[in-house]
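Board notes (copied after class):
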Amino acid sequence: MSSAPAVFRARGVSVSFGGVRAVDGVDLEVARGEVTGLIGPNGAGKTTFIDAVTGFVKYAGSVELDGTRLDGMAAHTRARRGLSRTWQTVELFDDLNVRENLAVAAARPGDADEVLSLLDLGKAADAMPSELTQAERKRAGIGRALAARPKLLLLDEPGAGLDASQSAELARLLPGLAEDGTAILLVDHDMGLVLGSCDRVVVLDSGKVLAQGTPAQVRADESVVAAYLGRSGVAS
């Protein structure tokens, strides 16, 4: 587990839709330079939690980034404060090439090319989105979020649609993205990706935190195996 200070803190975050509590009192921290995984069964509240802390749905509780409370701020204001996210469906600007897609979001000149190098997308820099493989589209989406130089990068299902080798490559890339101090919160169902890239893992079940710890601790937790890992066939 990282010894760096937490750059992101969520306390008692809850989201209700009608009478349904989708997220229920979640406490979660992400340290600077750390990759934290957020996993759980379908409907556990993972994406809803991301939507809440990034300002896209109303919530109860508190959210803090680098010592500043974000509660009440609009999504675009939170983004300017340093929260950057991807979406399950990668939406690139079809009339811009990959470099231009990243440059649109870049915090300063040169960031786009630096991120292209970090994500091994240099050869695809001048390609249009329609010419990209699924793996390249996923990395371009991550790159656009990363080019904004966020304090916290939230990744929502970046492994979806990738084959085993592409997922393994992404697992190798993510820790390197955090080396400059960026905090990363990774939501994904691909346990190979999560367990292979994260310093720490938080497990949600029915909107509540079921367990948290290192990948090894979470993998060995009997409550996690019963609720999730055993069903996905990766508990052994």
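Comment from the instructor: The chain has nine helices and ten strands. The longest helix spans residues 164-178.
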